[in-house]
Design goal:
Elements: E1 8-12, E2 16-21, E3 24-29, H1 37-58, E4 67-70, E5 74-78, E6 83-84, H2 85-88, H3 94-113, E7 116-117, E8 126-135, E9 150-159, E10 166-167, H4 171-188, H5 193-202, H6 209-227
Helix pairs in contact: 3-5, 4-6
C-alpha cells in the first residue's frame, strides 16, 4: 500500500528548489529577477536540459537518480532513499568507510573516463543507499519455497546534483574535480581526512589517471603559491 505524501520542500539553493512528493524529487530552477525575463527563461531552459542530458549519460556509468520527466525549467527524478554522506561518513565503521571510498574513486574514474566533470564533488552530493533486490526462481515449475527466492542487500553510492557538471577532455578539469573532492573531505571530514583521501585516490583508476594525478599536484602547487603572496 502506497502512502500519499504531501509535497514538501527539502532543499533550497541559489539556483533551484528541491521538493519531494512520495518517491519523486523535483528540481525547479529559480527565476532571477535581476536578469531580463526572456534571457532568464532561456538560461534556465538550457541549464535544465544540459543537466538532464548529463544525468542520463552518467546513469549508464554509475548510480544516479533515474529521470522521470524533464520540463522547461524543472527535472523530475527518482528520490534516493539513503544516508547523505556528509552526515554519515564520519560515523561509519572503518571497513564501511573503505568501501564507500572505493566506490567514490570508482565512480569518479568512470565519469572522467567518459569526459564528464561533476563540478561539485562534495559528500553532500553523495548518498549511501541500501538497495534490496529480490531474485526469483527462473523455473516457474519449481515449487516456491523460502530457498527459491533470495533477498540481497547491496549498498551503493549515488552521485547527485549535476547542476555544475559539464563535458571536458582536459586533464586540468579532471584534476580540479579531484581537488574539489580533497577540499570537501578536508573541511567536512578533517579528523579522518588522510585515511579517506588515500582510499578514494587508490581507487581512482583508469587509463589517464596517472596524468590526472600529476596535474592535480600542479593545481595544488599553484594554490600554495597564491597563498604565499
Amino acid at each position: 500500500m502506497t502512502i500519499n505524501m504531501k509535497e514538501q520542500i527539502i532543499g533550497r539553493g541559489a539556483e533551484a528548489t528541491l521538493t519531494r512528493k512520495n518517491n519523486i524529487l523535483t528540481k525547479d530552477r529559480i527565476k532571477k529577477g535581476y536578469r531580463h525575463e526572456l534571457l532568464d527563461k532561456n538560461l534556465r531552459f538550457k541549464r535544465t536540459r544540459h543537466e538532464a542530458r548529463i544525468i542520463e549519460k552518467a546513469s549508464k556509468l554509475i548510480p544516479v537518480p533515474k529521470i522521470m520527466n524533464v520540463g522547461e525549467e524543472k527535472i523530475e527524478m527518482e528520490f534516493i532513499e539513503g544516508k547523505k554522506l556528509s552526515e554519515f561518513l564520519d560515523i561509519a565503521k572503518e571497513q564501511e568507510q573503505i568501501e564507500i571510498c572505493r566506490q567514490i574513486g570508482n565512480n569518479i574514474s568512470k565519469l572522467h573516463e567518459n569526459n564528464i566533470i561533476h563540478g561539485d564533488l562534495t559528500t553532500s552530493n553523495m548518498i549511501w543507499s541500501e538497495v534490496s533486490q529480490k531474485d526469483k526462481a527462473q523455473n516457474t515449475n519449481l515449487k516456491r519455497t523460502n530457498s527459491s527466492k533470495r533477498i540481497e542487500h547491496t549498498k551503493k553510492l549515488y552521485f547527485i546534483d549535476f547542476g555544475l557538471s559539464f563535458h571536458s577532455m582536459r586533464l586540468e578539469d579532471k584534476a580540479v574535480d579531484l581537488h574539489l573532492l580533497k577540499q570537501a573531505l578536508e573541511s567536512k571530514h578533517f579528523k579522518n581526512y588522510d585515511f579517506l583521501l588515500k582510499h578514494c585516490l587508490l581507487n581512482y583508476k583508469w587509463k589517464d589517471s596517472p596524468q590526472v594525478l600529476k596535474q592535480l599536484e600542479k593545481v595544488e602547487s599553484r594554490g600554495r603559491y597564491k597563498n604565499k603572496h
